[in-house]
């Protein structure tokens, strides 16, 4: 028999704000909030009085003024008559370009290095260990400067490629030329180019759009074919032959588009003192890309190694006991489990790479920090606004990357009930 | 049982035969480790070729090292004399001649003993933290070391750091005396408020007064004169020392049930982790003055340290949060069941385990912080990697020297970072308690 006791009716005392656990957390939160707001108010008050003393307010109008400086690498149309906002956009695209190229290359190199470090080949495993330890323990800035120095100091000037017995020669079957100013690589050219479609402030490259559309379309078609095959297999027990359909779906559209555009590879060739044709990639981009790739790949290699090591031996032994071949064991058993361990730290490596690309300043690559946080800031003197905008853009980029990768992570992670 | 019908039964064991040549010794090792399959064979050959290529490329250059020369041209002359015209060699003479700059930057040369002493004392202060075999009394020195190190490096009146340390003593005394009289809460508030008031209003005048009474001072050195590895070490070690406690607090804030505390911590951590360190450093050097009362101007190294601490703390907070999340819920519940309050539970049960789990992450954050000290070059400080090297290269003697400074600085960074990672592995194995 339960005895219902009357709850003691004590009046509210001030001490209860601290000693009673029901109120204590509210008290603490209010105190913290007040302290933070006081601090913020103090900072903002200082800011306002400092700005008043300088006789200026916060004004982002400078973004629409003429920039007046040139940028050596632009992905969208830009002249020195363009606005600072345009320069910011150019910088942002350059940042995204280096981040994108770096992430892809770092993943490839990192996965290879991580797997090779686990290999039972003594030489290769040692070599990869040395690579990983050296790159992880030396500042990124040193790698950027060192690789850039290799390009500017050790490679010949473009005119060294001239003459009957040139002092320098092109590599990769005469298609790539490393010079001390740029790297000339072959590039796709279109005889029947679709041109550009004006789209507000941006111009859409229709050739690129067509290629991307063909690739994505082929990929989706391929997925549909495979799903259909699986459905038929589940219904009838027989899997229809799909390999030629898949090939056709994956490669058909892209080959058709490339043929329709009249694509050919344009190799750089020497004209006078300089290379023409192909694409001339500035050494700052190549050096920054290589340094970011090798540095981040060393971290990714460790992540991959840890991920594979985290899968217990029993998993692969069970797969072998089921009669799966090593390749299928890797694909069906080890990798899906290892990916769960690998992906979260991999996301933060991608973010680190993106943020580290701001070291472009060391080699004069005009990324977001070089345009908005560099020349624009210095020319307009709007340090506060430029830095705030810069941080905001980096923050948005980081959040976008991490949320995109988190979506992927949620797809591969263990579905627990 | 037809043993009786057997015509032949061997009565003694055969001696063991030596394994076949291909299954023993070096041949076996090579077969298993280098050429176990076609792919492995190709990889081995490829690896050997790469190593050979690198060695052939670098070894001659290294073997022609010159350690004594006054300038790059003299160095090249010596190389040409010794090994013939047209060969290249390493010119380490630049390190030999400029090492004071690499170590001390533009720190006044007659005061070099101070950073050296500070470094030796730093080792003494850090030793008991790193190795628990050393006497625990040494920790007292570790506690006062920041003040000692500050005084040795920057100089000035001895009373400034003494008064700063006195603030902590005042806080402790306030808590001690008020606790029996006014209760724990009042004592805690007083322990925070009293030192803050002391530092804000009384410490300065008190230091001045004592200085006029008893002038003990070292020649003061401005922050702009710092450079090279003392700069990297000053920023790196201060950053490490302060970012860990701050990071742990942020992690606790993020794990907290209290809505406001939680959201503030999350906002802070995500903001810091979302922007590059370089933008924070620029903020420190360009914008901090906007947010301080007009006319304040405080030290550039201090500003950089604050930013580096905030940056590293956000990363450490995430690492520690991982450690906290990895602890089984039972640990929290057991601590509650024992009737421990929040701080006691954290101190005695949760943190020792969570920090142990997060050691690798914490140490790699520290390594990252130490490597990131090179970025201070972009706010005009002379870091050893780019700042000092550019300064050395700006002189006519050493114009055009590239590899040697980079290799030297890289080697020193490697030494310390690799040492830190090895220490973390040692610590991990020492603290390992599970029986897996």
How would you summarize this macromolecular structure in one to three sentences?
Chain A has 417 residues and is mainly α. Chain A has helices spanning 16-19, 21-54, 84-117, 122-136, 140-154, 206-236, 243-260, 283-310, 313-321, 326-356, 368-380, 383-412; strands at residues 177-178, 182-185, 187-190, 196-199, 202-205, 263-266, 269-271, 274-276, 279-282. The radius of gyration of chain A is 29 Å and the shape is globular.
Folded structure, characterized:
The complex is a heterodimer of chains A (417) and B (436). Helix content of chain A is 63%, strand content 8%. Chain A has helices at 16-19, 21-54, 84-117, 122-136, 140-154, 206-236, 243-260, 283-310, 313-321, 326-356, 368-380, 383-412, and strands spanning 177-178, 182-185, 187-190, 196-199, 202-205, 263-266, 269-271, 274-276, 279-282. In chain A, α3 (84-117) crosses α8 (283-310), α9 (313-321) packs antiparallel against α10 (326-356) and α11 runs antiparallel to α12. Among the domains of chain B are: 23-63; 224-436, MetI-like fold. Helix content of chain B is 70%, strand content 1%. The relative contact order of chain B is 0.08. At the A-B interface, α2, α4, α5, α10 and α12 of A face α2, α10, α11, α14 and α16 of B.
Number of strands of chain A: 9
Query: Can you count the helices of chain B?
Result: 16
Q: What is the CATH superfamily label of the domain at 224-436 in chain B? A: MetI-like
Name the structural class of chain A.
mainly alpha
- Helix share, percent of chain A: 55-70%
Low-confidence stretches of chain A: none
The outline of chain B comes out as flat
Strand adjacency order, main sheet of chain A: 1-2-9
CATH superfamily of the largest domain in chain A: MetI-like
Element order of chain B: H for helix, E for strand:
HHHHHHEHHEHHHHHHHH
């Amino acid at each position: 028999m339960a005895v219902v006791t009357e709850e003691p009716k004590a009046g509210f005392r001030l001490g209860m704000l601290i000693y009673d656990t029901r109120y204590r957390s509210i008290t603490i939160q209010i105190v913290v909030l007040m302290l933070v707001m006081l601090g913020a108010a103090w900072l903002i008050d200082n800011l306002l009085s400092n700005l008043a003393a300088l006789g200026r307010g916060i004004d982002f109008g400078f973004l629409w003024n003429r920039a007046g400086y040139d940028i050596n690498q632009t992905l969208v149309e830009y002249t020195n008559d363009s606005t600072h906002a345009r320069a910011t956009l150019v910088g942002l695209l350059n940042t995204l370009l280096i981040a994108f190229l770096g992430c892809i290359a770092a993943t490839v190199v990192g996965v290879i290095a991580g797997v090779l470090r686990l290999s039972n080949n003594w030489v290769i495993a040692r070599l990869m260990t040395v690579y990983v330890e050296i790159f992880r323990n030396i500042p990124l800035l040193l790698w950027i400067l060192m690789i850039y120095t290799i390009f500017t100091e050790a490679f010949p000037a473009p005119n060294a490629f001239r003459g009957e017995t040139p002092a320098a020669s092109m590599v990769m079957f005469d298609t790539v030329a490393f010079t001390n100013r740029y790297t000339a690589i072959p590039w796709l050219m279109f005889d029947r180019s679709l041109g550009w479609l004006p789209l507000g402030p941006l111009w859409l490259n229709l050739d690129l759009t067509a290629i991307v559309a063909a690739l994505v379309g082929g990929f989706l078609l391929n997925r549909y074919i495979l799903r259909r095959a699986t459905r038929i297999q589940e219904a009838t027990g027989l899997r229809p032959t799909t390999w030629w359909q898949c090939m056709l779906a994956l490669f058909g559209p892209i080959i058709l588009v490339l043929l329709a555009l009249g694509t050919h590879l344009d190799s750089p060739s020497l004209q006078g003192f300089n290379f023409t044709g192909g694409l001339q990639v500035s050494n700052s981009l190549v050096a920054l890309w290589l340094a970011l790739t090798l540095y981040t790949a060393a971290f990714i290699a460790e992540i991959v190694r840890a991920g594979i090591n985290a899968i217990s031996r029993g998993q692969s032994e069970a797969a072998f006991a089921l009669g799966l071949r090593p390749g299928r064991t890797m694909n069906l058993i080890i990798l899906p489990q290892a990916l769960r361990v690998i992906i979260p730290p991999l996301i933060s490596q991608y973010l680190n790479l993106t943020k580290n690309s701001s070291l472009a300043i060391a080699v004069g690559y005009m990324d977001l920090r070089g345009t908005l946080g560099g020349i624009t800031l210095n020319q307009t003197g709007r340090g506060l606004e430029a830095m705030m905008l810069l941080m905001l853009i980096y923050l948005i980029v980081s959040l976008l990357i991490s949320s995109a990768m988190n979506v992927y992570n949620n797809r591969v992670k263990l579905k627990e009930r | 049982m037809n043993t009786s019908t057997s015509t032949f039964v061997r009565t003694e064991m055969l001696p063991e035969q030596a394994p076949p040549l291909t299954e023993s010794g070096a041949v076996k090792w090579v077969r298993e480790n280098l050429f176990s399959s076609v792919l492995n064979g190709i990889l081995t050959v490829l690896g050997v070729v790469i190593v050979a290529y690198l060695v052939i490329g670098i070894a001659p250059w290294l073997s022609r090292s010159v350690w004594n020369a006054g300038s790059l041209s003299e160095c090249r002359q010596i190389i040409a004399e010794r090994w013939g015209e047209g060969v290249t060699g390493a010119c380490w003479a630049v390190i030999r001649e400029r090492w004071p700059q690499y170590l001390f930057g533009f720190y006044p040369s007659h005061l070099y003993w101070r950073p050296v002493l500070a470094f030796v004392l730093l080792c003494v202060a850090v030793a008991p933290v790193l190795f628990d075999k050393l006497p625990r009394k040494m920790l007292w020195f570790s506690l006062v070391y920041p003040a000692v190190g500050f005084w040795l490096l920057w100089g000035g009146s001895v009373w400034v750091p003494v008064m700063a340390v006195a603030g902590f003593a005042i806080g402790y005394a306030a808590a001690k005396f008020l606790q029996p009289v006014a209760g724990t809460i009042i004592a805690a508030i007083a322990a925070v408020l009293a030192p803050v008031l002391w530092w804000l209003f009384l410490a300065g005048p008190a230091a001045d007064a004592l200085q006029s009474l008893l002038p003990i001072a070292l020649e003061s050195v401005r922050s702009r004169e710092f450079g090279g590895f003392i700069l990297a070490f000053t920023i790196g070690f201060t950053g490490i020392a302060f970012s860990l406690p701050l990071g742990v607090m942020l992690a606790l804030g993020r794990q907290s049930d209290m809505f406001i505390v939680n959201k503030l911590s999350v906002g802070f951590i995500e903001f810091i982790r979302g922007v590059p360190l370089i933008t924070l450093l620029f903020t420190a050097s360009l914008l901090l003055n906007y947010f301080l009362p007009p006319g304040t101007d405080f030290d550039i190294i201090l500003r950089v340290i604050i930013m580096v601490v905030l940056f590293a703390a956000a990363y450490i907070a995430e690492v520690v949060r991982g450690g906290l999340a990895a602890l089984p819920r039972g640990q929290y519940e057991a601590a509650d069941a024992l009737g421990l309050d929040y701080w006691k539970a954290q101190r005695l049960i949760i943190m020792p385990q969570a920090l142990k789990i997060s050691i690798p992450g914490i140490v790699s954050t520290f390594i990252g912080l130490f490597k990131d000290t090179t970025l201070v070059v972009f706010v005009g400080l002379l870091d050893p990697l780019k700042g000092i090297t550019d300064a050395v290269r700006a002189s006519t003697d050493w114009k055009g020297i590239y590899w040697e400074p980079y290799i030297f600085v890289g080697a020193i960074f490697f030494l310390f970072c690799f040492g830190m990672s090895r220490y973390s592995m040692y610590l991990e194995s020492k603290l390992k308690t599970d029986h897996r």
